[in-house]
Structure formats: C-alpha cells, structure tokens
Design brief:
Structural class: alpha+beta
Number of helices: 6
CATH topology of the largest domain: DNA Polymerase III, Chain A, domain 2
Strand order of the largest sheet: 11-8-9-10-22-21-20-15
Number of strands: 22
C-alpha cells in the first residue's frame, strides 16, 4: 500500500530550507544526502543529518497522515523552489520510489529505506536549561569571529560554553585572539565544546530575541529546541585551554576611543595594507591621541590621527588588521576601551555597551 502525503509547496520549501545545513555533501553514504519525511497525525518532521549535525523541522498538516520515507534533499529542494508557494504537492511513496505530482507536473524520485536513516540517540540523562534567544544569539555572535575553521587543534574550531559565578560564559580562540562573552543564567552548565558549524546553525535559526530556547546537554551531545526546530550536535572531545590565564591581570596603559571612528580608520588602513604579505596596522598611543599607520610592499602609506582618552606612557603596537576589525564590529557601545600590555603582551578590548564581553588580541611582532 502506498503512503500518501499532501502538503503545500511553500510549507515544504520552508521545512527543507530549515534543515539544509545538515544535509551530507558528497557522502560515501547516499542516505546522508537524503532528508527524512516522517508524518504522524497532523505533524510532519523533516530531518537531515551529516552524523555530526542533525536538524529536524516540524510543520503542521491539514489532514491526519501517516508517512515515512527519505528523498534526495538537493533534487527535492530544487523542484519545490520552482513551484508556487500555494501549489498543492502530493507525494506517493511506494516501494523504492516516491512519485511527486503538482498540477500537471509529475516527478519520480529515488527513495531509500527510512529505517537506515541515522538518528541521534535519545538523551535520557541530559540536563535541561532555558536561555532566551537574544542572550544565546549575542553570546554566539560575539565569539564567532575568533573561532578557527580548519585548525589542527580541535578546540580552536569550536566555542566553549561554561558557567562561572551564576553567569553563562562563551569562549573561542584561534590561537591569535580570543573572545569571551558572559550573561546571567540560572543553573550550572557543565563545560561543553560546540562545533563551529553548529554555532552558525543555531545563530541562523534564532529569529526571536524574546523566545525561550531549550538547551539539553549530555556527555557527548547537545540539543537546541528553537520553536519548531530541533538541532542536535555531537560535542568536540578535546581539552580546552585555561582561558582565564590569557587575560592579563595588569596593563601598561588604557585608552578610550570612539569605536565607530576607530573601526572606519582601521578599515582604511587595511585597504592600503591589503597587498602586503601580512595586512597589519600600527597603533601609536600618546597623550590625548592614537595614530594609525599602515603600508604595503609597494611603499603606499596610510596615516590618521584620532582623539583618545589616554594619559599613560607612549606605546606603539602592531595588529593584524582583520582581527581588530572583527573585535570592533562585535563590540557594543559608542566607546571602546583598549588595555595595553606592551608590544608583546595581549591587548584587551571592551565595548562600553557590554563590558562583560572581552576581546583579546595578540600583537604582531614588527
């Protein structure tokens, strides 16, 4: 007997879009390039997984339906996007194929046995936490730029979530810089390392800053419940460095500068330094001002002076320009506070709008 599912193209397209980050790419397991469509009663679950990340989107159906199959995600998505959102789509699963009809169009697509579709195991011993969408989005946004993408050290390609003094702490580092963001939270959270792709996926699906997000944590997995979307991910098994030791306890100078003005000046400096072997910018601090300079291998130069609240001794420090841009863009508030530790020590940046978020940048050697 055939299983039949009737759904509008718009609803199916929205569900497929929600899970596409988890679809396997050029996998040696063909089923990972499929999505599972599983209906029970009046709810359809659309699920994709690449074994590290699993996303499931639930959509409502008008009629009572029992349906379970897998279909090729890429081809199904392309077809659905060609249809009008209000077009009615009928999927008929029989044997090893699914016949899809809409209006006068008819498609026959390969289907794989849904029992072979890998699903993350249940998390019966997981601890559950509730966090608002705005808080989680802010934490992940602050630490995203400092995560590496393909570093040989596993901890560099992820974000650490931890609790400290009744605050949830998010940390990331690529070895050259570090970001640390904090927010109030109820209940202790054991330290977990969340892969970069999972962090990006969670950020994308947070659309309501006031919504409550369920966070389930076990020894090996984490789950985020965001409205009708469930995101499950494997955790990174690695030892994270002691991030507290990275932040200097003393400084040789402190400057306060208009964040927007400094950001635009560094961007201008980067334009000149873009063709250099390493795109860097020099910041020279002296009483009441900071001077920015950059150059390239062809002797093109840039210089700009900005007002600064600075009364300590003269300091000149070189930074990788993009690291500075990322920190200034992620910081909040009109003013940026820069705590200097010399030309070889870590420099600390905090925005006036959120002093609990700290950006650490190691200077470049001249």
């Amino acid at each position: 007997m055939a299983n039949i599912l009737v759904i509008s193209a718009g609803i199916l397209a929205k569900g497929l879009t929600s899970v596409r980050e988890a679809v396997g790419r050029k996998s040696d397991q063909p089923i990972l390039e499929h999505v599972r469509l599983q209906a029970d009663s009046q709810t359809l679950a659309i699920t994709a997984t690449n074994r590290t990340l699993e996303i499931s989107a639930r959509v409502s159906l008008e009629n009572m339906t029992v349906f379970d199959t897998t279909m090729p995600a890429g081809k199904l998505g392309e077809i659905i996007r060609t249809l009008a959102p209000d077009a009615e789509v009928t999927l008929r699963h029989e044997g090893e194929c699914v016949t899809m009809t809409s209006g006068r169009s008819r498609f026959k697509l390969n289907a794989l046995d849904p029992s072979g579709f890998p699903i993350y195991p249940a998390m019966p011993n997981a601890t559950r936490h509730i966090i608002t969408g705005g808080v989680l989005f802010g934490l992940f946004s602050d630490v995203t730029p400092s995560m590496a993408s393909n570093d040989t050290r596993p901890f560099s390609n992820c974000a650490l979530l931890d609790t400290q003094n009744d605050q949830i702490v998010a940390v990331s580092t690529d070895g050259h810089r570090m970001a640390l963001a904090k927010s109030e939270v109820q209940g202790a959270l054991m330290p977990i390392l969340i892969p970069r792709d999972t962090v990006a996926c969670v950020r994308k699906h947070i659309t309501d800053s006031e919504s409550e997000i369920g966070l389930l944590v076990s020894n090996n997995h984490v789950q985020f419940d965001i409205g009708n979307i469930t995101i499950r991910s494997a955790l990174v098994d690695a030892k994270y460095p002691d991030y507290k030791r990275v932040i200097p306890s003393s400084h040789v100078g402190t400057a306060k500068v208009d964040r927007g003005a400094l950001l635009e000046s560094v961007k201008r400096a980067k334009i000149i330094a873009a063709s250099a072997k390493v795109s860097s910018v020099d910041l020279e601090f002296s009483t009441g001002k900071v001077v920015l300079r950059s150059c390239d291998d062809a002797s093109d130069e840039f210089e700009e002076t900005l007002d600064a609240e600075y009364t300590d001794g003269p300091q000149e420090i070189r930074f990788q320009s993009q690291y500075l841009i990322d920190a200034l863009e992620a910081a909040a508030g009109e003013t940026i506070t820069i705590r200097l530790s010399g030309d070889v020590g870590a420099t600390i940046l905090t925005g006036s709008g959120n002093p609990d978020t700290v950006f650490v940048i190691m200077p470049q050697r001249k």
